[in-house]
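We treat protein structure as text, and this decision shapes the records that our systems exchange. We quote a single record here, exactly as it is kept in our systems:
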Amino acid sequence: MIVRPKLFFCALIPALILLAAAPTQAQSIANTKAAEAGAVLFRDKGCAYCHGVGGVGGKKAPTLTNLRTDKAWPPAKITNQILNGGQKMPPFGDSLTDTEIAQLVAYLRAKTRPIPPPLPPPPPAQ
């Protein structure tokens, strides 16, 4: 069988592009860990108070469940909204670190949003 170099490379290029674009296992694990941390932050920092548990929306704020697929809300815009607020949302730039904001964005953009672990039981009354 004779392999023509030009044809071989033409067939190989799409495969290489797909391979380069695919997230590595390490990136996937890091994204999952960030989303898990973001789920805890969403609960513990009070986001659920306005946006509802899991971001399903509430009386005070809209649903966040479609942010992952909403092209009008890329990660940079979500980050800006958390930092600076807007419309009815107060800014949280002074109460969240950059890492925490990145974790919240990872949670809001996760394909499958993780559920935070339950809160520990309160200490017994003395």
Remarks:
- The first helix runs from residue 5 to 21.
- The mean pLDDT is 83.
- The chain is about 50% helix and 0% strand.
